[in-house]
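Open question from group meeting: does this chain pack into something compact, or does most of it stay loose? Before anyone orders reagents, we agreed to write out a predicted structure and look at it together. Recording both the input and the output here so the notebook holds the full record.
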Amino acid sequence: MPVQVLGEILSIRKVGAYQAVTVVAPGIAELYRPGHFVAVQVGGPESSMLLRRAFAIYDVQSRGVYGGTVQFVFSVHGKGTEWLSHRKPQDKIDVVGPLGKPFRLPTTPVRATLVGGGYGSAPLLPLAVALRERGCTVDFVLGAGSADKLFGQLDAKRLAGVIAVTTDDGSAGERGRVSDVLPQVLERTNSDVVYACGPMAMLRAVTEIATARGITAQVAVEESMACGIGVCMTCVLPVRGEDDVTRMVRSCVEGPVFLGDRVRWDDVGTVPADALGAPTGGH
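Structure tokens returned:
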């Protein structure tokens, strides 16, 4: 079960185009698994910004001088993240976590390729550590719009057997997108499974490439998750279940990690007519 903590910010620092926040959050760190996220209240207690902001967990320390800490990475997109970017050490923030369904780990050693877009690579780095602890070989494909928007490249190099880097503008690695180099990486590494986190268009492309090769893809979606606990219904998307029935599921509860070939990418943002409980004509 997730816990709610009024945590103290230990540090906040700029990392390329992003901000990395470490907050003392006892209880959350101890329950964390790679792929979990936290929901943070923004704007302060008097704010009119009622909805929390969801951030994938990048790192945890379950013990230490300050107790358990949680680190997450974010980019300033609007008023909420702008407010968060101006916090200082010793400020308090309200954090709920760990939330969501984490990545599923293999029970036997496999070769895994991890694909991250922008700061979507943040939750993949602790996943890589967990996979290596299980005897798995880990390879990385990291992509971003430009060099300053890549995240975790040095950590990935330390953890990976093979690493490929792409940027849209060619300022780091190869010019292009992760989907341009992923087929060659999968062929070279003979991967058994793909894990990915990043923009929806990237996740779709990664899923299609993996599926065409008979490789399972687990994707952590970046749908807008406002409440983080399945109440507000802002993060629903159509996913086929094991019974082949399409349901509108909540990214924050049933996800954010899904099997990529179960997500109906063509219908994201809509309620397909054949989805369970979809409105019917005349009603």
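Observations to bring back to the group:
The two ends are 38 Å apart (CA to CA).
The longest strand covers residues 3-15.
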